[in-house]
Amino acid sequence: MTWNEAQIEKGPVPIWFQIANVLRSAISAGEFKEGDKLPSEGELNTAFGVSRTTARSALDKLENEGLIVRQSGRGSIVVPSKVDQPLNILSGFAEDMRRRNIEPGYRTLFTGFAKPEEDVLRALELRRGEQTFKTRRLLLADGKPIGVATSWIPAAIMEGASPPDAAYLDTGSFYAWLAESCGIILSGGREYIEAASLDAETARLLEVTPSHPTLVARRLSRDQRNRPVEYAVNSYRSDRYRYWIDLEA
């Protein structure tokens, strides 16, 4: 059954809400894919016999849910679905994407030893003058930019292990490298998430403007001995990525 064959019933559920449900189901079923244009207000009027106000309310709901964008001269365009990240699970980007049947990808922007800034020193409980190993990578979901991840680990914990190069980081998991090369398993951490503006370079990498809504997650991860192991600052496109957590009364 296609979207225009769905039955709209009179009753306590508002008609605009039912139409929004029909269109949402059509998007989920792949009837409308990323970049496709949804039926116009006029087409919805004809299909369901409703007013323009009712049709507009249905489309407004989908836009508020982040499923479409309304573009002047183009109509209502289906946008890529958001990646949902549970707040109570510590995992690498690749593992998280694969759980959602999304192909992860990386483009390494920097890898090497670097002098840490003050906030990194404090987070990792390092003394001034101690070195860190730093990586900065563009995160890709099905080949499209979704975030930029910058990570620091204390150089001392590497204990002579050969640092991962760009070729490895473009295809492999940094957490897997920590486990295999340094014997370090992350056991927990704390993450702070806030809205932030982007610098020009990060905006260019994410293919958005500096004013584009962005989520920044700052995370300190610890190992089995409760030692600070990694400090990471990750910037995500908020139209592609969101966090969730289950709450209990």
CATH fold-level assignment of the largest domain? Chorismate lyase
**C-alpha Rg (nearest Å):** 22 Å
- CATH class membership of the largest domain: Alpha Beta
Query: Strand share of the residues?
Result: 25-35%
DSSP helix fraction: 25-40%
The stretches of 5 or more residues where confidence is low (pLDDT under 50) are: none
- Decide which structural class fits the backbone: alpha+beta
Number of domains: 2
CATH homology group of the largest domain:
Chorismate lyase-like
**Euclidean distance between termini CA atoms:** 40 Å
Oligomeric state as shown: single chain
In this structure, how is the largest beta sheet organized?
6 strands, antiparallel
Shape: elongated
Give the tally of β-strands: 10
Residue-averaged pLDDT, rounded?
A: 85
Secondary-structure element pattern, one letter each: HHHEEEHEHEEHHEHEEE
Report the CATH architecture of the largest domain: 3-Layer(aba) Sandwich
Separate helix tally: 8
User: Biggest sheet: strands side by side, in what order?
Assistant: 4-5-6-9-8-7
